[in-house]
Amino acid sequence: MSTKTPATRTEPKRRAADLAYDRIEALISELKIAPGSAVVESEIADMTQLGRTPVREALMRMTAIGLIVKQPRRGLSVSTIDVLDHLKLIETRRALERLIAVSSARHASPEQRKNLVRCAEKMIKAGVTGNLDQYMSADQDLDHVNHAACGNRSAVKAVVPLIVQCRRFWYRYQAEGEISEGARFHMVLAEAVASGHEAQAADGASQLMDYLERFARRVINA
What is the SS3 assignment for 177? Predict the structure, then answer.
């Protein structure tokens, strides 16, 4: 997954710790750092090609949200995936995503509206070619733009760890669903937010969560 910054000119230059967070998230989401495996700060710094200070800060943030687990005498490790608990996670994320979508529809700048659709278009193209890495990169970029547009830091702070868990779950079990289907529902959300119609934006977020719930149920029932 690419670690470039979101495709928007309206956001400030991102801090090294934020870049480290994204790169570590990508490693965990793509299962390059497997669930339950040990996390060694020096190794992560090498993998992300960033200094140990921003990596340390990013790992602390991930520990605070439960993505990284700190165990006595065992150090840090990546949290495991709880398949059955995942449906509750999606239920919580649904409420937050609807709030964020409504706020973005209300507050997004013209450039942010365009960028949301551009990110979704990249996901559609990745779905056509079956390029999972490009799909996940565009997905991450779409989230960045959407979160910057909504202007609700509390909602973003609450939803980010849930998104990471969903992204990792999806990556782990993506053989159960086609990325073109996921791309289609991200486009529904992006176009709804870009339209500025708050009710449509909320519905677009719900449709995306419906898709993720169906996907999770297919995994559980497989």
Answer: coil
- In terms of pTM, does the model score above 0.70? yes
Question: What is the token pair recorded at 60?
Answer: 């602390």
| CATH numbers and ranges of domains, the chain | 16-78 (1.10.10.10), 86-221 (1.20.120.530)
Q: Mapping DSSP to helix (H, G, I), strand (E, B) and coil, where does residue 140 land?
A: helix
Taking only the tens place, the pLDDT of each residue in 97-126 is: 999 999 999 999 999 999 999 999 999 999
Burial pattern 74-104, b for ≥16 Cβ within 10 A else e, equals eebbbbebeeeebeebbeebbebbbbbbbbb
Q: How many CB atoms lie within 10 A of CB 15?
A: 11
Cβ 20 vs Cβ 50: under 8 Å: yes
Q: How far is CA 137 from CA 7, 29, 84, 106, 133, in A?
A: 11, 11, 27, 26, 6
Q: What is the C-alpha separation between 5 and 171, in angstroms, rounded?
A: 21
- What residue has token string 């609700």? 152
pLDDT mean over 49-70: 90
In which residue are the tokens 């990508």 written?
A: 26
Rounded mean pLDDT, 134-152: 94
Higher-confidence residue: 5 or 61?
A: 61
